Amino acid sequence: MSQLKPASWSYAEEFVPEPEVVEAARRRGVEFGDASPVGTGAGAALRFIAAAVQARHVAEIGTGAGTSGLWLLAGMPEDGVLTTIDSSAEHQRAAREAYAEAGYAHQRTRVITGPAADVLPRMTDGAYDLVVVDADKGGYPVYVEHAVRLLRPGGVLVLDNMLWHDQVADPAARDATTSTLRDLGKSLRDHDELVTALFPVSDGLLVAVKR
């Protein structure tokens, strides 16, 4: 059993420094109140995964203020394109500003405004190297169903907040959000098409590779 101490977790969480442009996007996300940004550890993991799979085609469900998108773009090849979906036009304006401030050409991002449940069915099967889900938690099961379809073999699915403020690991926590995320994690763990791991970075990052 791991004897990881809080100090070690904090050290690992902040091991990769957050770039200034990402920090600025994080502040905007916090100000929105309904666009909670990914943690620094999770962001560094997203950058790492995007670089490891040389992800040229990435789909992100939940744009927020652009924090996770900046981490993803930093790991993607220079010709990679990030398709990001959010129902809030205000969030996406902030994200566009963040991408521009970071120096990314507008051709590198495809920003789609609308409910993900409406947008995802129109997207192409097997066309994406990486799909990241970080949106309303009640919608996760629907988003994940589409995400698996969108991934190519060898593509990677990433879900943020899968430990949900330490609630998922607590069997006494049975609120709707916690139960949804707990049940979804177990279903992905047992999914025949996926090889899955759950990493205790930030608020919990579930990562799965499509066979």
Structure, explained:
With 211 residues, the protein is α/β, with parallel strands linked by helices. It has a single domain, classed as Rossmann fold, CATH 3.40.50. Helices cover 40% and strands 21% of the residues. It contains 8 helices and 7 strands; from the N terminus they run H-H-H-E-H-E-H-E-H-E-H-E-H-E-E. The protein has helices at 6-13, 20-32, 40-52, 67-75, 89-101, 116-119, 140-150, 176-189; strands at residues 57-61, 81-86, 109-113, 128-133, 151-160, 194-199, 205-210. Strands 3-2-1-4-5-7-6 form a 7-stranded mixed sheet, with helices on both faces. Strand 4, helix 7 (140-150) and strand 5 (151-160) form a beta-alpha-beta unit. Helix 2 (20-32) packs antiparallel against helix 5 (89-101) and helix 3 packs parallel to helix 4 (67-75). It is globular and about 45 Å long.
